[in-house]
Amino acid sequence: MATTIETPRAPHSVRRNRGVNWEKWGWIYMRASGVVLLILIFGHLFVNLMVGDGIKAIDFAFVGGKWSDPFWQVWDTLMLWLALIHGSNGMRTIVNDYSTRPLVRKILLGAIAVSAVTLITLGTLVVFTFDPCPAGSPADLLPSFCPVNQ
C-alpha cells in the first residue's frame, strides 16, 4: 500500500535568478549577528549590573558618564543596530512564511522596514547627541559631574 504525501503549500512563488541569494545571506546574517549579539549583550549586562555598585548605580549620571566615552557609544550603537536588523530580519521571515496575499505581504514588509530604519536612526541620534550637561540648565537639575558654570 503506497502512501503519497501532498506537496507543501507555498505562500508565494520563489523566483530563482542567477543574482545574489538574499535568503542565504539573511540566514548567515542571523547566525553571525546572534553570536556577536550574545557577546555584546552579556558584556552590557556585566558592566551595568555586576561592576561597581551594581543595579543601584544605574541612573542618569551613570548613562551620561558611560555615553561620554566613545567606546561605549560604539558598543551600544553596534548592539542597537545588530539587534534591530536581526529582529527585523526575523519578522521578515515570519511575514514571508505566513502571509499569503502579495499586497498584505508588501505592506507588512514595508512597515517592518520603515520601523527598523526609524528606530535605528532615532537610537543612533540619541547615543551620539546625548548631552548630560545641557547649557543653560538650572544647577540643581544637573548631575553632580557637570560643571556648574556653563
UniProtKB/TrEMBL annotation:
<keyword id="KW-0479">Metal-binding</keyword>
<feature type="transmembrane region" description="Helical">
    <location>
        <begin position="25"/>
        <end position="47"/>
    </location>
</feature>
<keyword id="KW-1133">Transmembrane helix</keyword>
<keyword id="KW-0472">Membrane</keyword>
<dbReference type="GO" id="GO:0046872">
    <property type="term" value="F:metal ion binding"/>
</dbReference>
<keyword id="KW-0812">Transmembrane</keyword>
<dbReference type="Pfam" id="PF01127">
    <property type="entry name" value="Sdh_cyt"/>
</dbReference>
<dbReference type="GO" id="GO:0016020">
    <property type="term" value="C:membrane"/>
</dbReference>
<feature type="transmembrane region" description="Helical">
    <location>
        <begin position="107"/>
        <end position="130"/>
    </location>
</feature>
<keyword id="KW-0349">Heme</keyword>
<protein>
    <submittedName>
        <fullName>Succinate dehydrogenase hydrophobic membrane anchor subunit</fullName>
    </submittedName>
</protein>
<keyword id="KW-0408">Iron</keyword>
<dbReference type="InterPro" id="IPR034804">
    <property type="entry name" value="SQR/QFR_C/D"/>
</dbReference>
<dbReference type="InterPro" id="IPR000701">
    <property type="entry name" value="SuccDH_FuR_B_TM-su"/>
</dbReference>
